[in-house]
Amino acid sequence: MKILKLAAIPALALAVGLAAAGGQVAVKGAAFSTGKPAAVSGPMIPARGAGGYESAGNDTLVSTNWSGYAAHTGQYKSVSATWTEPGVSCPAAQVQVSAFWVGLDGYKSNSVEQLGTDSACNGTTPVYYTWFEMYPAFPVYFTNPARPGDHFTASVTVRDGAYYTLKIADSNRGWSHTVYITHHGLADSSAEVIAEAPSTASGVLPLADFGNVYFSAAEVNGHSMGSVPHTTVVMENNSSQFKDYVSGLTDNGRKFHVTWEHSS
Fold first, then answer.
1. Which of 19, 77, 130, 136 is 20 to 30 Å from the Cα of 182, by its Cα?
2. In CATH, what class is 14-34+59-260?
3. Which residues of 35-58 are buried (b: 16+ CB within 10 A; e: fewer)?
């Protein structure tokens, strides 16, 4: 789920994408599936190609699909945060998705190593699920149930520039996953805690009305997000309206919240 570029290029399947780069995957925990949830249309990946983003101020960046905070002025070895899965309101008979995640890369690189949760609408029916993704490979969905109000802790770390560990845990339901991936040559040039409007090759999906999502314990390289050089990322539609609101950082730079405003 890289920060959006405009022209579409289809993504590779996870196994193909990792194999092409000499990657290896091992998962400790319950089963997962490489198929997308049947209730949700399309992979959770953005289009790539020409285009980009623009600065909206000294420490703010405008995006069409990301909101939250990003550190991007050095090399990064870890990022982590916690959040409570928000419920979604689904008044329209269409697919709408809101994703919440932590990850390395994606701000100014062509890969993202990330994992998180989705609150989505299959028509007027809300659905909730968890996933990891080594973009541009397809996301991989965990089979464990996720529900509104569940408290998630997630982290991505890298050792020696190639050995990635992605962890996610649901403390309400008592399950966790640890994913080990070997992948050489990635930039590790940014670290993010993000709410996203996921995309397919056709463009950005409508942002599901999640109300508010509250992130806490947001840390980069073992320090609070607020204590390292960081940028606020705000999501804007084609009419220059903000899709959601990103609060300032509190709790010594470890907490913030995102409030939904527009689906598209």
1. 130
2. mainly beta
3. ebbeebeebbbbbbeeeebeeeee
